[in-house]
## 1
Amino acid sequence: MAVWDDLVGQERVVEQLTAAARAAGATVGAGRGAAPADGGNASLMTHAWLFTGPPGAGQVTAARAFAAALQCTSPDLALGGTPGCGFCDGCHTVLAGSHADVKYVRTDGLSIGVGDMRELVLRASSYPTGGRWSVILVDAAHRLTEAAANALLKGVEEPSPRTVWLLCAPSVQDVLPTIRSRCRLLVLRTPSAEAVADMLVRRDGVEPEAARIAALAGQGDIERSRRLAVDEQARTRRAEVLRIPLEVSDIGGCLAAAQRLVDTAKADAEALAETQDAKETDDLKAAYGAAEGSKAPRGMAGAVKELEKRQKSRATRTRRETLGVALLDLLGFYRDVLAIQLGSTGALANEDQRQALNRVAQAGPAEGTLRRIEAVLACRTALDRNVDPLLAVEAMTVALRAG
């Protein structure tokens, strides 16, 4: 299976990345400083790329596939084969996350700090140890602090000849102008529900009708669609969120719905903490050689404190992401309501909730639905500005009642 197979509905992006990987291979084959074997294709490859697109479109998947194609060692390449075979040692180790010359950077917290970025810039100044290229893939580049972004700027301004930066962000506006001006931009589009459903049937063995419903409900987010198709708990939580428009008929119902939504997000964060925090703490203590009941080795207390800080940041991010998914589900619900009120004949994201959609659509005018959509968007903005989650969600549910 080629590394490009996981990119759903991104044919144009695959074509561009394949051409760039082929040009990069020609450059390596020609030797450092020499002209590429195919003469004119050197311009297809560059040292820094910025992958953007809507949530779930596959920015990180595209960047990882490109990293694998750059390291591809398939013998078919000499015969004109496509880089990124998916079977050679280079492709396999990149996709498994174990390639020595591919660094994958992702934060569980709210931001990527300057210390981490300085280490990456230093690493980027060296040549690959065994692979064809030294690749640094930064997931969520929009989470870089200002100092970290300035450190990254130095790396992309003065690149090593065999280093490639792959940055992923929701939009080009989320990255500093000085950085994005030095990157080649690739914009992924929202994949169609038909393409996502086909992928779920082929790759995950989902029944066609279930795949269609999950693909529509995922609203273009491939991973969200997959979870809805294969995870019963994800479907249950979505159903609970979509009950909210029917429960906000009085103030008591508004407050109860808000509390339930926030409690669910908190439970998700606590569940993650139970599985990861304790293991991380035990691993850290083992690394310092701490014995049960003995005095903590020198330096361990500070390391534990720093770990706890990162874990707290991760818990906050998990709560925000859970609430973010719930708010997207609500937006999709009210968008479908508006479509019904305006007589649209297009496909609905929540086709399986047709009865509830019709009930809400008949209860008021389209103007009220627009105000409810604005209330959900205002809640998202408030959460981004660190407003207390319960207060933000309560304000939203009360606004949903007012219409």
Note: Strands lie at 48-52, 102-105, 134-138, 163-168, 184-187.
## 2
Amino acid sequence: MRPDAEKGSSFDLDALRAAYSRSLAPAPDGAPRILLTGHSHQAWPDVARDALAACFDDAARLVDGKWDAVVLPKLSAVGEAILERMGFDRGDAIAFGQNTHELVFRLITALPRRERQRIVTTQGEFHSLRRQLARLAEEGVEVVWVSVEPRATLADRLLAALTPGTSMLAVSAVLFESATVVPRLDEIVARAVEVGAVPLVDAYHAFNVVPIAWGRAAPHVFATAGGYKYAAMGEGICWLRVPRDCALRPVFTGWFADFGSLSSGDGTVAYAPGGARFAGATFDPSALYRAAAALEHWERFGLTVPRLRAISLRQTGRILDHLDAAGLGDDVVSPREPERRAGFVAVRSSTAGDVVERLRARRVLVDARRDVLRVGPAPYLTDAEIDQGVAAIVDELRR
């Protein structure tokens, strides 16, 4: 048994690593790999491979009957488990999509009609939202881009930008370039509701690694996330948590949103209740099978979100210690305070892209966003792997 980061508790790291036998296998040339990609593409546990086979077998056995017999019940169970890990009630409404962009755009098309829509966001949002909002601005939507710097006063600037007449707030729980946990999120969401705006929180870089205290925001917030990063579910499985009293009518709608709907009686399009009103259309269920397997994997090892958070903080703290010891502390852009730091460490480098390529040649995998190198540990890594990987990073950053 090796200690994890939660005081007074431990988990069997060797057993956990054994559950990733394929992902943690050496490269084809026999060289060991160090996967410091826990913030972007966590390794898939072996059960994900078994889940893909089960998806095929169910389709072969049940043909079209797979939907009612397996897929829809699995969708419900996965949704409840995800809501719980997000910090919501298991009975809340949830909608699934292949990516968060699909779900967010569906929500945007449901915003109440006004002479001119006004959306408040930050300059630190992920590319898909940033690009979509920039395109909407070209079509006349007023988009207020709030600077994320200085980060200590970001909440104040967002609160000031949320004025009456705002249609929507779109903000991340964690900034994807710096791993900064956005402070006072419940207060920001409450202000959005107060001025009549639809509040949307992108929780992708928080899900399964940073617990969110929703507080008074919980009844009102739309929260989106997905399985590609810390959840180890892979691509194609994203979701939108929907407030229970939601009556919005997305213009971008699919036929799955018609299941369970009641006729409007006046010829208008009707919507199913709850999260189903944001449903799309026929999807590839293999991602859902992987999601169910990954959720069972976390439960089997007792890796709750608080425990994963504790492990992550210990690991990112170790990375910071190495960077400080190497004299690179001034280049770190991630918060030092544990309560403000999410699941990775970001280091500024003018040659970040080149550093990523040189590290890949050394079998150390990281990624970069513009001039920021992102280093993401994961619970299956040993301290020795982290130390070796960061030593290689330091070496390349000094070149």
Note: The chain has a mean pLDDT of 94.
## 3
Amino acid sequence: MSTANFYSELPTLTDFLDITNSSNFIPVPEDWYIVITDIVESTKAIESGHYKDVNLLGACSIVAVLNTLGNGANSHKDTTDIPFVFGGDGATILIPPSLFAKTKQALSVVQQLAVQEFGMDLRVGIVPVSVAIAANYDVKVAKLKVSENYSQSVFIGGGLTYATELLKDPNATEVYRITPEKSFADVDLSGLECRWQDIPSQHGEFVSLIVMATAYGSENLASLYAEIINKIQQIYGDEVDYRPVHSKTLNLTFSSKKLSKETKLRAKSGSRLHKQLYLWKIQLENLLGLFLMHFKTQAGEMDWGTYKDIVVGATDYKKFDDMLRMVISGTAAQREALNSYLETKYKQGKLVYGTYTSDRALMTCMVFERNGPQVHFVDGADGGYTLAAKALKERMKQKALNWSTFVRMMRRRDARGYSPRPDLFPQSGLFSQPDLLQTSPLWSNALNSCTLDPHEGKANSCISC
């Protein structure tokens, strides 16, 4: 298997539950790179009502790299295949070493666009896979077939999480961070679209969910994730019932305000004239599309009567990148049942989780061919994944605080010469970490955010994540 074509040559999984089998994953070559992008202070931007801008810029970084590398709207025959995952307020992309320079240049231009058009800081970093491996994290990937037009990248091993936290470490920024450079270079964002209205839930609400299992050992982790996925299906029913997007809930928008998001990024230039011309162009395309879909027109190989079904099939609403992420459509009663199950597992120390509830979902699209390669990223409106991640970090912080207090209590106990019950503390004085979460940089950051009283083992302060 060649390094450059490593991902394109991977076998394809067909069942989402296959991601719980670690033998289905292959190590990413050590000479590859992990590209991380995210919006700095995305929570504040979302709370200010800019959640659509945050989502669009997250997808923008993916399409910029794919187009630059020959996988986008202008070239579909390139044999290089690039794994990526959308995270709501950013993205993760893996690239071979031969594409490092082009990726850096493309994302530098996207950083400039983020500031100029949206007033946002897009943080970009490139971390060698070898760095994550040297820190005892794996970077393993599998390819999951979602539809005929989209195969999703799935990641395990903790390496992506490590790279993300490393990028946010002030001491490492100069090494791995990409800073925007003043340049007149252009970036190809063709394929990036934001043309659908917000999507209502068929059942009343959407839940944006993030779950990180913390059981010790890969077999236990796999078993727990399989249990979680099966529990979701038990609560919400078949996938057709809880998936957030259905053809009858898809409606194109003609709102100049909503279409201006795409216009800002894809107009020929930043001039008012070019933006207005592009806006009219996509409004006209939407009008034509509405006509073709309504009358189920057949044009060449494209059957417009089935286009919404094509879109639904390529929606990216459940994924795995060191943690499970889903956007689920359901009722309040179903959400309460899910939260009850997750809270029980959280209190048992088996996982941490975060959820966010909204009455709508939004979709940001990458469409390279109407009847071909495309993916439609789904997130809960008003902040979805980003605010679910905030809730997860709060639980992680509390878990870290409780563990730190417990460790200090046990150390004081050992200092007094107390002999614990062997069944409760089989290794007196040796405080082995109870789960894999505590080896992760997320755990370390949560632990460091809490200041403990050295005498009482109590928290004096806890800095918000």
Note: The first strand starts at residue 12 and ends at 13.
